Request: fold
Amino acid sequence: MDELEAAVNQTLAAHRLLSPGARVVVAVSGGADSVALLNALVALRPAWKLSLFIAHLDHALRPDSGDDAEFVRRLGRRLEIDTLIERHDVGERCAREGWSLEDGARRIRRQFLLEAARSRSAEAIALAHTADDQAETVLMRLLRGTGLMGLGAMALKRPLEDRWLIRPLLGLWRSEVIAYVRRKGAAFREDPTNRDRRFLRNRIRHDLLPLLARDYNPNIKGTLVQLAEQSRTDYDFLEKEAGRSWKRAVKAAGNGPEALAISIAAFRRLPGSLQRQLMRRAIQQVKGEPGQLEYRHWLEAERLFLDRPPGTLLDLPGGVQLRREPTRVILAPSRLNEVQ
Reply:
Protein backbone atom coordinates (compact mmCIF):
# COMPACT_ATOMS: atom_id res chain seq x y z
CA MET A 1 0.00 0.00 0.00
CA ASP A 2 1.32 3.45 -0.92
CA GLU A 3 2.27 5.69 2.04
CA LEU A 4 -0.38 8.27 1.20
CA GLU A 5 -3.03 5.58 0.89
CA ALA A 6 -1.91 4.22 4.28
CA ALA A 7 -2.22 7.71 5.79
CA VAL A 8 -5.74 8.12 4.36
CA ASN A 9 -6.68 4.65 5.62
CA GLN A 10 -5.46 5.56 9.11
CA THR A 11 -7.40 8.86 9.03
CA LEU A 12 -10.61 7.14 7.93
CA ALA A 13 -10.34 4.64 10.77
CA ALA A 14 -8.98 6.83 13.58
CA HIS A 15 -11.53 9.60 13.08
CA ARG A 16 -14.42 7.36 11.99
CA LEU A 17 -14.91 9.29 8.79
CA LEU A 18 -16.56 6.29 7.15
CA SER A 19 -18.03 2.96 8.11
CA PRO A 20 -17.40 -0.24 6.10
CA GLY A 21 -19.75 -0.46 3.16
CA ALA A 22 -20.29 3.30 2.97
CA ARG A 23 -21.57 5.01 -0.16
CA VAL A 24 -19.41 8.07 -0.89
CA VAL A 25 -19.66 10.93 -3.37
CA VAL A 26 -16.16 12.17 -4.23
CA ALA A 27 -15.97 15.80 -5.33
CA VAL A 28 -13.54 15.78 -8.27
CA SER A 29 -12.53 19.05 -9.92
CA GLY A 30 -9.84 17.38 -12.01
CA GLY A 31 -7.02 19.04 -10.07
CA ALA A 32 -4.19 17.16 -8.40
CA ASP A 33 -5.76 17.13 -4.93
CA SER A 34 -9.10 15.67 -5.98
CA VAL A 35 -7.48 13.18 -8.38
CA ALA A 36 -5.25 12.04 -5.51
CA LEU A 37 -8.24 11.63 -3.19
CA LEU A 38 -10.15 9.64 -5.78
CA ASN A 39 -7.18 7.35 -6.47
CA ALA A 40 -6.61 6.76 -2.76
CA LEU A 41 -10.27 5.88 -2.15
CA VAL A 42 -10.28 3.57 -5.17
CA ALA A 43 -7.22 1.79 -3.73
CA LEU A 44 -8.96 1.45 -0.34
CA ARG A 45 -12.33 0.51 -1.84
CA PRO A 46 -11.95 -3.30 -1.48
CA ALA A 47 -10.86 -3.16 2.16
CA TRP A 48 -13.64 -0.75 3.13
CA LYS A 49 -16.22 -2.20 0.70
CA LEU A 50 -16.96 1.31 -0.53
CA SER A 51 -19.41 2.35 -3.22
CA LEU A 52 -17.88 5.40 -4.90
CA PHE A 53 -19.49 8.08 -7.06
CA ILE A 54 -17.88 11.09 -8.75
CA ALA A 55 -19.46 14.55 -8.77
CA HIS A 56 -18.08 17.45 -10.82
CA LEU A 57 -19.52 20.94 -11.08
CA ASP A 58 -18.58 23.02 -14.11
CA HIS A 59 -18.69 26.61 -12.78
CA ALA A 60 -18.70 28.11 -16.30
CA LEU A 61 -16.18 30.73 -15.17
CA ARG A 62 -13.65 30.00 -17.95
CA PRO A 63 -14.09 29.39 -21.67
CA ASP A 64 -12.28 26.05 -21.34
CA SER A 65 -14.05 24.86 -18.15
CA GLY A 66 -15.83 22.24 -20.24
CA ASP A 67 -12.43 20.59 -20.82
CA ASP A 68 -12.17 19.93 -17.08
CA ALA A 69 -15.62 18.35 -17.12
CA GLU A 70 -14.65 16.14 -20.05
CA PHE A 71 -11.43 15.11 -18.26
CA VAL A 72 -13.44 14.05 -15.21
CA ARG A 73 -15.96 12.23 -17.40
CA ARG A 74 -13.17 10.20 -19.01
CA LEU A 75 -11.59 9.56 -15.59
CA GLY A 76 -14.85 8.16 -14.27
CA ARG A 77 -15.29 6.02 -17.38
CA ARG A 78 -11.76 4.60 -17.05
CA LEU A 79 -12.26 3.78 -13.37
CA GLU A 80 -15.80 2.50 -14.05
CA ILE A 81 -17.30 4.87 -11.49
CA ASP A 82 -20.74 6.46 -11.87
CA THR A 83 -20.08 10.15 -12.64
CA LEU A 84 -22.43 13.09 -12.28
CA ILE A 85 -21.47 16.30 -14.11
CA GLU A 86 -23.49 19.52 -14.14
CA ARG A 87 -22.80 22.99 -15.53
CA HIS A 88 -23.99 26.03 -13.57
CA ASP A 89 -23.44 29.65 -14.57
CA VAL A 90 -21.93 30.62 -11.23
CA GLY A 91 -21.00 34.15 -12.31
CA GLU A 92 -24.54 34.98 -13.38
CA ARG A 93 -26.06 33.49 -10.20
CA CYS A 94 -23.63 35.41 -7.95
CA ALA A 95 -24.43 38.68 -9.72
CA ARG A 96 -28.15 38.02 -9.35
CA GLU A 97 -27.96 37.12 -5.65
CA GLY A 98 -25.40 39.78 -4.72
CA TRP A 99 -22.83 37.18 -3.58
CA SER A 100 -19.08 37.49 -3.95
CA LEU A 101 -17.71 35.04 -6.51
CA GLU A 102 -15.83 33.05 -3.85
CA ASP A 103 -18.77 32.81 -1.46
CA GLY A 104 -21.31 32.16 -4.20
CA ALA A 105 -19.23 29.43 -5.82
CA ARG A 106 -18.94 27.72 -2.43
CA ARG A 107 -22.71 27.90 -1.81
CA ILE A 108 -23.61 26.57 -5.26
CA ARG A 109 -21.01 23.81 -5.10
CA ARG A 110 -22.17 22.64 -1.66
CA GLN A 111 -25.79 22.47 -2.80
CA PHE A 112 -24.81 20.54 -5.91
CA LEU A 113 -22.79 18.02 -3.86
CA LEU A 114 -25.58 17.65 -1.33
CA GLU A 115 -28.11 16.87 -4.07
CA ALA A 116 -25.64 14.47 -5.70
CA ALA A 117 -25.23 12.58 -2.42
CA ARG A 118 -28.98 12.37 -1.90
CA SER A 119 -29.57 11.14 -5.44
CA ARG A 120 -26.99 8.35 -4.94
CA SER A 121 -28.13 7.54 -1.38
CA ALA A 122 -24.59 8.34 -0.24
CA GLU A 123 -24.04 9.21 3.41
CA ALA A 124 -20.77 11.08 2.86
CA ILE A 125 -19.26 13.65 0.51
CA ALA A 126 -15.47 13.46 0.31
CA LEU A 127 -13.59 16.74 -0.28
CA ALA A 128 -9.90 17.00 -1.17
CA HIS A 129 -8.80 19.84 1.14
CA THR A 130 -5.22 19.53 2.39
CA ALA A 131 -3.28 20.99 5.31
CA ASP A 132 -2.23 23.84 3.00
CA ASP A 133 -5.90 24.69 2.44
CA GLN A 134 -6.40 24.63 6.20
CA ALA A 135 -3.56 27.10 6.81
CA GLU A 136 -4.88 29.41 4.09
CA THR A 137 -8.39 29.28 5.55
CA VAL A 138 -7.21 30.21 9.06
CA LEU A 139 -5.21 33.17 7.75
CA MET A 140 -8.07 34.30 5.50
CA ARG A 141 -10.46 34.29 8.45
CA LEU A 142 -7.98 36.14 10.64
CA LEU A 143 -7.73 38.88 8.03
CA ARG A 144 -11.51 39.19 7.73
CA GLY A 145 -12.09 39.00 11.48
CA THR A 146 -13.29 35.87 13.24
CA GLY A 147 -13.88 34.14 16.55
CA LEU A 148 -12.99 30.76 17.97
CA MET A 149 -15.27 28.87 15.61
CA GLY A 150 -13.74 30.57 12.57
CA LEU A 151 -10.20 29.86 13.76
CA GLY A 152 -11.11 26.17 13.92
CA ALA A 153 -11.44 26.40 10.12
CA MET A 154 -12.23 23.09 8.41
CA ALA A 155 -13.12 19.88 10.25
CA LEU A 156 -12.18 16.37 9.22
CA LYS A 157 -15.87 15.51 9.45
CA ARG A 158 -18.94 17.68 9.84
CA PRO A 159 -22.64 17.43 9.04
CA LEU A 160 -24.09 19.04 5.94
CA GLU A 161 -27.83 18.88 6.54
CA ASP A 162 -28.62 15.15 6.34
CA ARG A 163 -25.21 14.08 5.00
CA TRP A 164 -21.56 14.20 6.14
CA LEU A 165 -18.69 16.18 4.68
CA ILE A 166 -15.37 14.40 5.15
CA ARG A 167 -11.83 15.57 4.36
CA PRO A 168 -9.49 12.55 4.34
CA LEU A 169 -6.49 14.59 3.06
CA LEU A 170 -6.72 17.36 5.67
CA GLY A 171 -3.70 16.06 7.60
CA LEU A 172 -1.50 15.91 4.49
CA TRP A 173 0.46 18.68 2.79
CA ARG A 174 -0.06 19.56 -0.85
CA SER A 175 3.53 18.52 -1.60
CA GLU A 176 2.71 14.99 -0.37
CA VAL A 177 -0.37 14.89 -2.58
CA ILE A 178 1.57 16.02 -5.68
CA ALA A 179 4.25 13.42 -4.99
CA TYR A 180 1.53 10.75 -4.77
CA VAL A 181 -0.12 11.53 -8.11
CA ARG A 182 3.32 11.52 -9.72
CA ARG A 183 4.11 8.11 -8.23
CA LYS A 184 0.79 6.85 -9.54
CA GLY A 185 1.38 8.43 -12.95
CA ALA A 186 -2.08 9.98 -12.67
CA ALA A 187 -2.97 12.83 -15.01
CA PHE A 188 -4.66 15.93 -13.61
CA ARG A 189 -5.77 19.37 -14.76
CA GLU A 190 -4.19 22.71 -13.85
CA ASP A 191 -6.84 25.35 -13.11
CA PRO A 192 -5.49 28.79 -14.11
CA THR A 193 -7.96 30.52 -11.78
CA ASN A 194 -5.89 29.16 -8.87
CA ARG A 195 -3.40 31.91 -9.71
CA ASP A 196 -5.96 34.66 -10.23
CA ARG A 197 -5.09 37.44 -7.76
CA ARG A 198 -8.70 38.69 -7.74
CA PHE A 199 -9.44 35.93 -5.23
CA LEU A 200 -8.32 36.50 -1.65
CA ARG A 201 -7.30 32.87 -1.15
CA ASN A 202 -4.95 33.06 -4.12
CA ARG A 203 -3.33 36.24 -2.82
CA ILE A 204 -2.83 34.55 0.53
CA ARG A 205 -1.42 31.40 -1.10
CA HIS A 206 0.94 33.01 -3.57
CA ASP A 207 1.84 36.32 -1.89
CA LEU A 208 1.16 36.54 1.85
CA LEU A 209 2.11 33.06 3.06
CA PRO A 210 5.47 33.05 1.19
CA LEU A 211 6.20 36.50 2.66
CA LEU A 212 5.40 35.32 6.19
CA ALA A 213 7.47 32.16 5.74
CA ARG A 214 10.44 34.09 4.36
CA ASP A 215 10.52 37.04 6.78
CA TYR A 216 8.71 35.96 9.95
CA ASN A 217 8.19 32.22 10.54
CA PRO A 218 9.48 29.47 8.22
CA ASN A 219 6.85 27.13 9.71
CA ILE A 220 3.95 29.57 9.42
CA LYS A 221 1.66 27.04 7.72
CA GLY A 222 2.28 24.45 10.42
CA THR A 223 1.64 27.09 13.08
CA LEU A 224 -1.69 28.04 11.47
CA VAL A 225 -2.78 24.40 11.23
CA GLN A 226 -1.89 23.92 14.90
CA LEU A 227 -3.94 27.02 15.78
CA ALA A 228 -6.91 25.52 13.94
CA GLU A 229 -6.62 22.24 15.85
CA GLN A 230 -6.38 23.99 19.24
CA SER A 231 -9.24 26.35 18.43
CA ARG A 232 -11.49 23.50 17.32
CA THR A 233 -10.78 21.59 20.54
CA ASP A 234 -11.64 24.65 22.64
CA TYR A 235 -14.74 25.35 20.55
CA ASP A 236 -15.97 21.77 20.98
CA PHE A 237 -15.67 22.17 24.76
CA LEU A 238 -17.66 25.40 24.69
CA GLU A 239 -20.29 23.76 22.50
CA LYS A 240 -20.75 20.92 25.01
CA GLU A 241 -21.05 23.38 27.89
CA ALA A 242 -23.57 25.45 25.92
CA GLY A 243 -25.59 22.27 25.37
CA ARG A 244 -25.82 21.80 29.14
CA SER A 245 -27.00 25.39 29.61
CA TRP A 246 -29.53 25.14 26.80
CA LYS A 247 -32.14 23.25 28.81
CA ARG A 248 -32.12 25.87 31.57
CA ALA A 249 -32.04 28.98 29.41
CA VAL A 250 -33.83 28.28 26.10
CA LYS A 251 -37.41 27.28 25.35
CA ALA A 252 -39.80 27.39 22.41
CA ALA A 253 -41.23 30.89 22.20
CA GLY A 254 -44.76 29.75 21.40
CA ASN A 255 -45.28 32.35 18.66
CA GLY A 256 -44.02 30.43 15.67
CA PRO A 257 -42.60 26.97 14.92
CA GLU A 258 -39.02 28.26 14.63
CA ALA A 259 -39.04 30.97 17.31
CA LEU A 260 -37.01 30.53 20.50
CA ALA A 261 -36.98 32.38 23.82
CA ILE A 262 -33.83 32.85 25.92
CA SER A 263 -34.32 33.64 29.61
CA ILE A 264 -32.59 36.93 30.43
CA ALA A 265 -31.86 35.88 34.03
CA ALA A 266 -30.34 32.53 32.98
CA PHE A 267 -28.37 34.21 30.20
CA ARG A 268 -26.85 36.78 32.54
CA ARG A 269 -25.62 34.07 34.91
CA LEU A 270 -23.45 32.51 32.18
CA PRO A 271 -19.82 33.48 31.46
CA GLY A 272 -19.46 35.69 28.38
CA SER A 273 -18.00 32.90 26.25
CA LEU A 274 -21.01 30.68 26.97
CA GLN A 275 -23.46 33.51 26.38
CA ARG A 276 -22.18 33.91 22.86
CA GLN A 277 -22.08 30.17 22.25
CA LEU A 278 -25.67 29.80 23.44
CA MET A 279 -26.79 32.62 21.17
CA ARG A 280 -24.92 31.09 18.23
CA ARG A 281 -26.76 27.79 18.74
CA ALA A 282 -30.09 29.60 18.97
CA ILE A 283 -29.43 31.57 15.78
CA GLN A 284 -28.58 28.36 13.93
CA GLN A 285 -31.74 26.67 15.21
CA VAL A 286 -33.96 29.44 13.88
CA LYS A 287 -32.27 28.98 10.48
CA GLY A 288 -29.96 31.95 10.72
CA GLU A 289 -26.33 32.14 9.64
CA PRO A 290 -23.99 33.03 12.54
CA GLY A 291 -21.08 33.16 10.11
CA GLN A 292 -22.45 36.43 8.72
CA LEU A 293 -22.25 38.18 12.08
CA GLU A 294 -19.43 40.63 12.77
CA TYR A 295 -18.10 41.46 16.22
CA ARG A 296 -20.30 44.57 16.44
CA HIS A 297 -23.40 42.44 15.88
CA TRP A 298 -22.52 40.20 18.82
CA LEU A 299 -22.07 43.28 21.03
CA GLU A 300 -25.44 44.66 19.97
CA ALA A 301 -27.12 41.32 20.69
CA GLU A 302 -25.50 41.08 24.12
CA ARG A 303 -26.63 44.62 25.01
CA LEU A 304 -30.19 43.56 24.23
CA PHE A 305 -29.97 41.19 27.22
CA LEU A 306 -28.21 43.71 29.47
CA ASP A 307 -29.73 47.18 29.20
CA ARG A 308 -32.18 47.55 26.33
CA PRO A 309 -35.85 48.30 27.20
CA PRO A 310 -38.65 45.82 26.41
CA GLY A 311 -39.86 46.15 22.84
CA THR A 312 -36.38 46.78 21.39
CA LEU A 313 -35.84 44.97 18.07
CA LEU A 314 -32.52 43.93 16.55
CA ASP A 315 -32.23 42.59 13.00
CA LEU A 316 -29.11 40.51 12.45
CA PRO A 317 -27.50 39.58 9.12
CA GLY A 318 -28.50 36.12 8.00
CA GLY A 319 -32.25 36.52 8.57
CA VAL A 320 -32.78 36.55 12.36
CA GLN A 321 -34.58 39.16 14.44
CA LEU A 322 -34.24 39.52 18.22
CA ARG A 323 -36.96 41.14 20.35
CA ARG A 324 -36.48 42.12 23.98
CA GLU A 325 -39.32 41.29 26.38
CA PRO A 326 -39.40 41.89 30.14
CA THR A 327 -37.94 38.48 31.12
CA ARG A 328 -36.77 36.97 27.84
CA VAL A 329 -35.38 37.67 24.38
CA ILE A 330 -37.22 36.17 21.40
CA LEU A 331 -35.25 34.95 18.39
CA ALA A 332 -37.20 34.31 15.20
CA PRO A 333 -36.63 34.31 11.45
CA SER A 334 -37.03 37.84 10.10
CA ARG A 335 -39.73 36.66 7.69
CA LEU A 336 -41.77 35.37 10.66
CA ASN A 337 -41.65 38.77 12.35
CA GLU A 338 -42.65 40.48 9.11
CA VAL A 339 -45.82 38.38 8.89
CA GLN A 340 -46.91 38.96 12.49
DSSP finds 14 helices and eleven strands in the chain.
